[in-house]
Amino acid sequence: MSERGVVNDEQGEGRRGGRGFSADFLTELFRNPLDPGYADAALRRAQRGQPGRAGWSVSPVSLVIVVLLGFLFAVAYRQTMAEEPGRAQARSGLVAQIQQRQGETDELSIRADALREEVNRQREAALGGSGAARLRNLEASTGLGKVRGDGVVVRLADAPPGQQPLSGAKVGPPQVLYSDLQGVANDLWGAGAEAIAINGQRLTATSTIRNAGQAILVDFRPVTGPYEVSAIGPGAMRKRYEGSGSALTMRKVAQDTGLSFEVRDAEDLTLPAAPEPQLRYAQPAVSTSPSGADELSGSGSSPSPSGGGR
């Protein structure tokens, strides 16, 4: 085919709107990207007056569904706003109940302390001089009596909100953990402390330091930061504690995370008495059958007529 013939074909293609022959397929593809079949279908829809895919049409059913959804959303919003005062009132009622219970608990605690003081006075009067002094020493050593003296105060506090760690090392969260208080208390005992209290909660041989969610409990009583661990002991107690594992660890954590850790001397500390623990004692099982008595005695035979053997 001659070059002139090719030019005539291209002119005819422009009049018909169809796809003609071209030696460069990629050039033709980018010039006419729409397939002729799709173009013809769009032309037929336009002639019949039907909207294409790019058109917008709303059927009556769709309109009804949209209106119904809008109505449901409006009803839900009105109900939510109508119930909001009720929820606020219920919340304020719960807050008032909590405050009332806290007030009652504080009053009962004050009354319990007064009764404990009265019991101590009556007991000392009944025991006399030496017996009362020995009892006071035992109560002080076990944590059941109020004590006074010089000692050390270890203060721990969470890092300020929004503060980023000072270094990239991952040494722990910037909050005081219950295990931190455990380590401080144990190392203070090891440094020679004679009495320890955490935020006024006296520690005894049966005390526990644990967490419940985000709260820290000392003997099942919540304590909040900043946490002060007060200890009464000898003059060398602070120097011994400064070299303990918990002191070195907490200083490193404070340096890396912004957590507050401070150790200072304190004079004339007063630590309150701990509540009397509810102790449980194990008792041997008592058997009423002769066979059970024989089993407890370690022998299957009956006792001798002379009464010996047990």
UniProtKB/TrEMBL annotation:
Transmembrane recorded as keyword: yes
Coiled-coil annotated residue ranges, if any: 98-125
Listed transmembrane segments: 54-77
Annotated segments matching region Disordered: 270-310
Entry annotated with the keyword Signal: no
Compositional bias segments (type: Low complexity): 297-310
One family name in Pfam for this protein: DUF881
Annotated Gene Ontology cellular component terms: plasma membrane
InterPro entries associated with the record: DUF881
UniProt entry keywords in alphabetical sequence: Coiled coil, Membrane, Transmembrane, Transmembrane helix
Family from the record: Belongs to the UPF0749 family.
Database matches in PANTHER family: UPF0749 PROTEIN RV1823, UPF0749 PROTEIN RV1825
Protein name (Swiss-Prot/TrEMBL): Membrane protein
